[in-house]
Design a protein that fits this description.
Largest sheet: 8 strands, mixed
Oligomer: single chain
Radius of gyration: 29 Å
Helix content: 25-40%
Number of strands: 29
Distance between the termini: 54 Å
Structural class: alpha+beta
Length: about 725
């Protein structure tokens, strides 16, 4: 390995990082330790992968031929090991000009070990030919058990006996592509590709790169050849076969296409319509044009992985596929943005090991946040960030959580968690705030261009940032990438004798590091904002500032970049002020959340304002919590609730308002419930039925029984959710 970090023992690594990393110290019990996960050794480099595949639906087999071009990475060798899970080999040979030279080999359940015809040097390329059968449904673990996941290749309803479409699709991440073609199945390998897929003529295919030819075989089959001239990692190879309808869009002359089941084809543009705008936004922001020859998105039946960013061809689960009615209530814009951003972070530059998964998933999640900011403004961006923060905080306990760049783990699939996704994304946002947008995005551009079509790790990102800014970012990376946890700050604000004071305690679990946190503090004094800057770097710390008079409000960390928790001594009056006068998304949602637990009149004033909030989640919180028994706000609250129930464009808010009005028991709203059942929105219909049930259970049951089967199916599921 040529990585500097691997030259150090565990003890030296800890010294290098500056502090002991909990859960990786040498004094832990042996059974609690996992081995250091080294980056995959590169004995050979993949150069080009050519595949010719067809399918035996009855046996659930893939019949394949592979021509794999390789070269030794550095040292000459006559041995080649390929990942090939559960394959049957008919022939393995080397192509020498026009000659085919058979090769000797052995295999186990996961790899094939080939003796080449001679020793090859790093300057020499060679082609290995393999005739094989892939049997994904017959895969066994090394212990002999049948594999139920990570099969790589999936046959959906191959016999046509189920009430679902017949499809074939692949899922390569993390290292399952080697279940359908022999390769070196590691993220630090890159290869160009050419994949010829022979299928029944009635089916559509999709793979990486461009469709370069379609050949009618005169026997009811057709061979589609897909070619990718730019190198990408084996786990990002994909195929899909089935009855898909294609909607073609465009971005700067490149094909942008959406593959859906026929019944959803009319809604393709409504589902994916923002994709070209996203491509334009990301390309301009990063200073790197969308790098691949086309971009396709396909929705596959029974797909279990959420979505997968295969190079130039993203696979989505069925939840993305929606009718026009369903889109009234919900869309999967975040997922679409996330997978697209991977085409740069993950595909163009790929994490060189699963330990560095943050270089893929943290960035893609960060990309979601930035898209929402571009598309919906700062409020949308802040809402997305806040959601990521809450996702992460649910994963930690007393400030204790896993390390972001994890070189010790039991199972690589465990890395796909709220640390790699949510925490990593807000850590990136925080460093963007500290560095400034211009320097940050110039750093990302340098990282992408310097490592294009190769792999990258966190240290390369840090070095790019240091080259751009001239600043040593090691302390930031050591704190956030190579140590775990988050700060929990207990804050006491005070004012006396012309001085504003802040008393801070870091109260995260004692085993968690003491954080260094550069933060801003805004004081609102006599209608003027006064900004101060502090660095919290001790477990207990006090700050004081000369302030002209007692502040009306103190806003710690106004940009809300803290990756952690703040517990302070704010009162309901402070929350009322911040909602009305410092109305960032963070301040509004924290005020509303506090008000939901407070029965004071000031709390009701916050919730009353929240009824008209522009964000539907804040509206819903306010609708549910507002106390209609408060006579001082009841009249205005009822008036607003009726308006929401009748007119709000956000259907979840209309549904929640209907339920709230029905809970009053006032029969004058019953007609509103009945009218809502005629609405197109499943949310609104559900709200109306729940409302009728509050008047009389039989009323709700009767209304549900009048719905058509499609509506009833959607509404029944929503009623359970909205009734909670």
């Amino acid at each position: 390995m040529n990585k500097l970090i691997l030259k150090y023992s565990l003890f030296s690594l800890i010294v290098l990082m500056g502090q002991k990393i909990e859960a990786q110290t040498t004094d832990q019990k042996t059974d609690e330790l996992t081995a250091y996960r080294v980056t995959a050794l590169k004995v050979h480099d993949l150069v080009h992968t050519k595949l010719d595949v067809s399918f035996d639906y009855g046996k659930r087999h893939l019949n394949g031929k592979a021509w794999i071009t390789l070269k030794p990475h550095f040292y000459e060798t006559d041995q080649l090991t390929l990942d090939a899970k559960g394959m049957e080999f008919k022939e393995i040979a080397i192509i020498d000009g026009k000659k085919t030279i058979p090769l000797q080999y052995t295999q186990d359940s996961e790899q094939v070990f080939i003796t080449l015809n001679r020793k090859y040097k790093s300057t020499e390329k060679y082609i290995v030919y393999i005739n094989y059968i892939a049997k994904p449904n017959e895969l066994k673990t090394k212990g002999g058990e049948s594999m139920t996941d990570s099969k790589g290749l999936y046959f959906i309803n191959p016999d046509g006996k189920e009430d679902k479409p017949i499809q074939i699709w692949t899922q390569g991440e993390t290292e399952a592509s080697s279940a359908w073609f022999p390769t070196i199945d590691k993220p630090n390998q890159k290869t160009t590709s050419e994949i010829a897929i022979t299928v029944d003529s009635k089916y559509t295919t999709l793979s990486n790169g461009k469709l370069t030819s379609q050949k009618d075989n005169k026997n009811g089959t057709r061979t589609d050849t897909w070619k990718m001239d730019q190198p990408n990692a084996p786990y990002l190879f994909m195929m899909a076969v089935g009855d898909f309808k294609i909607y073609k869009d465009t971005y700067k002359g490149k094909e942008v296409s959406y593959y859906l089941e026929p019944k959803y084809a009319p809604y393709a543009k409504q589902i994916f319509w923002k994709t070209p705008d996203m491509m334009d936004f990301y390309s301009k922001m990063l200073g790197v044009e969308y790098p691949w020859p086309k971009y396709s998105q396909i929705v596959c039946k029974d797909y279990f992985g959420g979505a997968m960013e295969n190079t130039s061809a993203t696979v989505h689960g069925e939840y993305v596929q929606k009718t026009e009615r369903e889109l009234l209530d919900d869309n999967q814009e975040s997922t679409i943005a996330h997978e697209l951003f991977h085409q740069w972070f993950g595909d163009l530059v790929t994490a060189e090991s699963w330990s560095n998964l943050t270089m893929n998933e943290s960035f893609a999640t960060f990309g979601e946040v930035l898209w929402h900011g571009h598309d919906a403004g700062q409020d949308g961006e802040d809402r997305s960030r806040y959601e990521k923060l809450q996702n992460y905080l649910r994963s930690q306990k007393n400030g204790n959580s896993e390390i972001l760049a994890r070189f010790h783990y039991k199972n690589k699939d465990d890395l796909f968690d709220n640390i790699s996704y949510s925490k990593g994304s807000i850590i990136l946002y925080a460093i963007k705030n500290q560095m400034g947008d211009e320097a940050f995005f110039k750093s990302l551009n340098l990282y992408l261009t310097a490592n294009a079509y190769k792999s990258g790790e966190t240290h390369q990102l840090r070095l790019a940032m240091e080259e751009v800014t001239g600043k040593d970012w090691s302390p930031y990376f050591n704190q956030w990438y190579y140590q775990g946890g988050n700060p929990i700050l207990n804050i006491e604000y005070g004012y006396a004798n012309g001085k504003a004071t802040i008393a801070v305690k870091q109260v995260q679990e004692i085993a968690v590091q003491t954080f260094s946190l550069p933060l801003k503090v805004d004081y609102y004094v006599n209608g003027t904002k006064i900004r101060k800057e502090i660095v919290i770097d001790q477990r207990e710390q006090n700050f004081s500032f000369d302030i002209p008079s007692q502040p009306t409000f103190v806003d710690l960390d106004p940009d809300k970049i803290l990756v952690g928790e703040v517990r302070d001594n704010k009162k309901i009056a402070d929350y009322l002020y911040q909602y009305k006068n410092v109305p960032t998304y963070y301040n509004r949602i924290e005020a509303i959340k506090f008000a939901t637990k407070d029965k004071s009149h000031e709390a009701q004033l916050i919730l009353l304002a929240g009824l008209k909030d522009q964000q539907d989640d804040l509206q819903v919180l306010s609708i549910k919590a507002i106390d209609l028994g408060d006579n001082q706000i009841k009249e205005e609250a009822i008036k607003t609730l009726v308006d929401i129930a009748k007119n709000d464009k956000k259907t979840i808010c209309r549904a929640t308002a209907l339920i709230k009005l029905a809970s009053t028991g006032d029969v004058s709203y019953k007609a509103l419930m009945e009218e809502s059942i005629k609405n197109q929105s499943y949310n609104v219909i559900s709200g109306g039925i729940i409302g009728l049930t509050k008047y009389a259970p039989t009323e709700g049951d009767k209304a549900l029984s009048t719905l058509d089967e499609d509506t009833k199916k959607h509404v029944t599921a929503l009623i359970k959710r909205l009734s909670k």
